[in-house]
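Course assignment 3, question 2. Fill in each field.
Student: A.L.
Task: Predict the tertiary structure for the chain below.
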Amino acid sequence: MHALQYELTLPADYDTEIIRTRVSRRGHLLDDWPGLGLKAYLLRERGVHGSPVNQYAPFYLWNAVDGMNAFLWGGGFQRLSDDFGRPQARQWTGLAYEEGVAAGAPARFAVRRRRPVPDAAVLAEAVQEAVDEAGRLARQEGAVLAAAAVDTSRWETVHFSLWEHPEGREDREDREHGTPKAEGDVFQVLHLSAPERAALPRGRQW
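Answer field:
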């Protein structure tokens, strides 16, 4: 498994409906992309869930590197670069993936948490902690899925989780304005392409 994310930070007065419209028109294009476990089309809006910015930041979990390369070099990423400028595309090697207790539910929120691996840390212990955290998140009420990965060029772990609704609560007001049971940056999920989600390897990946 391989994780990929890029961020487009938009002006404070940017009309985020432009992003919503873009995703509604183009999100289906990756619904059957070979090698793609899933792509979550993510949006943060300034002042919502504590976000200081407007930001479009899709997150990918890939089953096959050649599928990722086909996206990056074969036109999909180029279209975004043509429209917004080429963003930095961060990559992480997969550590763990778990389906959540609400795996069959639609994902409405995502949480991403990036953490440095301390210089003094024992690597085996640090990455096992990341694996354990992915499992813990997946067991929380409302969790659709959870993943952990590591960037060895920066020695940074990332946790990514999708949620049905915040805090396991069902009423509409809480679902719109609460936050999921995970720490990190909270995004709205505008669309989820998941052609090979079922093939993503479960559990620890070494």
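Instructor remarks: The two ends are 11 Å apart (CA to CA). The chain has one domain: 2-204.
Grade: pending
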